[in-house]
Design a protein that fits this description.
The complex is a heterodimer of chains A (355) and B (455). By secondary structure, chain A is of the alpha/beta class. Chain A has twelve helices and eight strands. In chain A, the strands form two sheets. Chain A has a six-stranded parallel sheet, with helices on both faces. Chain A has a two-stranded antiparallel sheet with strand order 5-6. In chain A, 52% of the residues are buried. Chain B is an alpha/beta fold and 455 residues long. Chain B has three domains: 83 residues, RNA polymerase II/Efflux pump adaptor protein, barrel-sandwich hybrid domain (OB fold (Dihydrolipoamide Acetyltransferase, E2P), Beta Barrel), CATH 2.40.50.100; 180 residues, Thiamin diphosphate (ThDP)-binding fold, Pyr/PP domains (Rossmann fold); 127 residues, Rossmann fold (3-Layer(aba) Sandwich), CATH 3.40.50.920. Helices cover 27% and strands 22% of the residues of chain B. Chain B has twelve helices and 22 strands. The chains are: A alpha/beta (355), B alpha/beta (455). The interface between A and B is large, with 48 and 47 residues.
Chain lengths: 355, 455
Amino acid sequence: MAKKSKPLAADPSADENFALRSLQTAHAASPRYAASDDEFLALYEQMLLIRRFEERAGQLYGLGLIGGFCHLYIGQEAVAVGLQSALDPARDSVITGYRDHGHMLAYGIDPNVIMAELTGRAAGISRGKGGSMHMFSVDHRFYGGHGIVGAQVSLGTGLAFAHKYREDGGVCVAYFGDGAANQGQVYESFNMASLWKLPIVFVIENNQYAMGTAVKRSSAETHFYRRGTGFRIPGMDVNGMDVLEVRAGAEVALDYVRKGNGPVLMELNTYRYRGHSMSDPAKYRSREEVQDVREHRDPIDHAKTELLERGIAEDLLKDMEKQIRAKVAAAADFAENSPEPESAELYTDVLVESY
Amino acid sequence: MAIELKMPALSPTMEEGKLARWLVKQGDVVKSGDLLAEIETDKATMEFEALDEGTIGEIVVPEGTEGVKVGTVIALIDGEGETASPAAKPQSAPAPAAQAPAPPPAKADPVSPLPLASGTTAEPTGSNNQPSITLREALRDAMAEEMRRDDRVFVMGEEVAEYHGAYKVTQGLLEEFGAKRVIDTPITEYGFAGIGVGAAMGGLRPIIEFMTFNFAMQAIDHIINSAAKTNYMSGGQMRCPVVFRGPNGAAARVGAQHSQNYASWYAHVPGLVVIAPYDAADAKGLLKSAIRSEDPVVFLENELLYGRNFDAPDDAVELVPIGKARIMRAGRDVTIVSYSIGVGLALAAADQLAAEGIEAEVLDLRTLRPLDRQAVLDSLARTNRLIVAEEGWPVCSIASEISALCMEEGFDHLDAPVLRVCNEDVPLPYAANLEKAALINVAGIVAAAKQVCYR
């Protein structure tokens, strides 16, 4: 056979450098966001709200008030809070999988309507018809809430397509897990997003376990930020347990995407303290492993220590904690005491139009 | 010995074509691979290559001739050289019939096992001044009109832009609307179906073309889990106005994996609108309604109908309502319910039945979800006998659904059991005789109609 001429890339080393390191280098140069005290307090408050909300949801599940699947975000709070604080809510969009409560709270959506959705009540954000995994707020450009692992990656690429089509300047942030990262459609989406330079940040929340399967047992390439290299998508490896590092990484990624360069792939290394869902006995990892992360890497404890070091009054933080507990308790009461949907709701919203 | 050069079949469904241009003339010496002629099919203009060496002896069919049947001798090559290359290798392009040792016996219906319905679907006759249009043109016009009207509408799929559509349905759209709105995708159905659904969630009006619905199997998760359920799951908050369209059902001689009717699969799913039109005007009006709908629509076309000419009535309504069946032919003795390509067969069967004194009513469902149940029951109440003609498998089919409906809600009107006339319950075979035997045909519909009339 005749020898084919060399492929297009003139300087493969330059390509590798681009694909693997350009944004990582920028992030490493300035790894933590220089938050003002007020900004840092606001981020801390959001993380704490998610933590307390999820703990309460776990209790309500135990009481039988929440049914079905319920995937808690405890341990991963810094990811959604750090990333979403960098977005422009007037034009950017967010989409995620079924572990979605935290992302909604990070967007400032009323905890009452989220908790009421978990308990399946008419006042829930999906009128009780979606449940834990299917919550949406089109007003906040939060597009769910999807239960098929990996589907949100293609859907998010579609949202990014719409941003570009309308030239509205928006960016889509599509979250998915280390488990979803092995789905085929993720790579179909990477290809088209890069080919068409769509404004999207792909965020892999690597919480180390796809249900019960540890990353190293499921993934040939465990450095997920490299997974876009074959599609010329630059990757970033970010500490997902530090809200200021997440925020700084998000700024680098968003800046690149907003300039019309196409997608970025961020890997956020984080940890899920609870089981995959409420029915997970977590036999696949040791208690010691979980305890070790809790004690040494917890994003909220970490932030609290730093806030105190900055000279924030302890009373202020205690007060904040108290208010959040009250807010969550009120949400739980609301969710428990709201009526279920009218039976006629069974037949509404199947189709929008009447034919 | 002269070699006969025959009109080649350049696509699985081609029955005839136009000999657009000869690129050689009498006396030219040609060798294997030389271009001989340009042939225009209903889908594309293609060049036709020589497979043998020789001298062009006689041009039998002059250029510009339309409607040249596949297999017709179009030229003769005087073959001094042909013994030197008795078995020229087939080209990668569809092989013409030039090297065939003997012409196959003439067939009335060389490619399509599905006969054209008489009257309603044949080429308009000279005495009829009604303008006509092919189904593919009607579909293209529907998309173009809606794209002019609403800049949120775009078309995305494999080969929709620069190739003009694998079946030429999107021809001309790229030129008018540009690459922003007519988008060629990689071969990645799951991915681009998801992108289409996401774009609809984000406020656009995507038309997602599947080259055929067989390939939509790769994407069915997004059609069902993402598109159909979102409005319900979000309590009416998040809509998904997307149209998935493309050819569905058996084509011709393309084997089991490319020959399946998915109507009942999609019609099974609450949250979807499923449309399967028959003729051109209806397809246009329904596609326009589909594009304007706030709901996700699966729009099932039929490849064998794409090139068929239909009347283009001046008084055609712009928007054909979704969810309304229509009576194609009134009759009092038996109802034949059908949709898509089956309607043509049902009309042909009705013609035959009329000759035997049985007046069949032909009901075209047009929309399969939501189903126009009342139209079925009303027709049954008039005729008291009902059969369903469906180009598709019988088990868990649209025909099964119609049958259940008649039993549950029309029982008192039934004078005979409802019969399903469908394809055979087997994967579609390739061999022409087996394929023909597997597919629904007019004779089967006629027989079933007579059976329920006890005739």
